[in-house]
Amino acid sequence: RLRRALGALREKLAQAHAPLSELRVLSDGKDILVERGGARLEPLSGQFVLNFETRELEESVRVMAGCNADEWLATALEYEAEGKARAQAIDAYDRALWVDPERSDVLINCGTLCYEDGNLEKATEYFRRALALDAENALAHFNLGSVLEEIGELEAARQHLRQAVRLDPNYPDAHYNLAFVCEKLGASAEAQQHWEAYVRLDPAGPWCNYARQRLASFKTAKSASST
Q1: pLDDT above 60 (res 91)
Q2: Fewer CB within 10 A of the end CB, N or C, for the chain?
Q3: Integer angstrom CA distances of residue 127 from 12, 140, 187
Q4: What is the CATH number of domain 63-134?
């Protein structure tokens, strides 16, 4: 496409004797544009276009013709590692799914990015698709349960978090989130069980102090009720 674009550009801008040195070649990940003198145009059609946020071609365009799902997954992970290319990472994950729609790992990764971006509806969709492929995936149950808790679907969240700890009893974060949801539902005994599991599994964890506070409050309440 680049070769055809430059050929078209030579015809439309006859005064540009050395296009690669006189012009900036840009891409938004899908289309190739050429900038000359502050104006941008689509070289094959010759139409001028509005500016959009781009990076230099050599930084953003990846030749991925005929890639398999694993290669698209690797590309998505590279974008994630860059920290500022989340949209490109999601696009690469979607391309992996287009090649192989039954990749639950890709669905979970993409759902996690959507969740981190605040797109809870899309995250829920990806996690549900992952569970449709692998109903015994503890991480997918945990992620979906966590999203459902945030949108207020507490009972559904509890069911998925219960599945997560059933499938992986040593999953501290699943115990923590399940304890939190159980407290919201007024299920104190179940909440206490999972606070205890979290403290046992991750005694130096980032939320361990809070879990211990919750356990202490249960003991205080029990002592008060027995007097």
Answers
A1: yes
A2: C
A3: 49, 6, 26
A4: 1.25.40.10
In single-letter form, the type of residue at position 70 comes to D
Q: Residue ranges of the alpha helices (H) in 42-103?
A: 57-60, 69-82, 86-99
Q: CATH 1.25.40.10 region(s) of the chain?
A: 63-134, 136-214
Q: Which one, of 213, 209, 216, 172, lies nearest residue 194 by Cα?
A: 172
pLDDT exceeds 60 at position 24: no
Report, at the CATH architecture level, how domain 136-214 is classified: Alpha Horseshoe (1.25)
Averaged pLDDT for residues 91-105: 92
Name the amino acid, one letter, at 75: T
Please state the rounded mean pLDDT for residues 194-213: 93
Question: How many CB atoms within 10 Å of residue 134?
Answer: 16
What does the pLDDT look like over 68-81, one tens digit per residue? Answer: 889 889 989 888 88
Q: Which residue has the tokens 């309440």?
A: 221
Supply the mean pLDDT for the chain: 80
CA distances from 132 to 8, 56, 93, 149, 223 (A): 48, 40, 18, 20, 46
Range 34-48 average pLDDT: 51
Can you tell me the distance from the alpha carbon of 121 to that of 147, in angstroms, rounded to the nearest whole number? 9
Q: What is the value of pTM for the model shown?
A: 0.69
Question: Which residue from 33, 40, 39, 37 is spatially nearest to 5, judged by alpha carbons?
Answer: 33
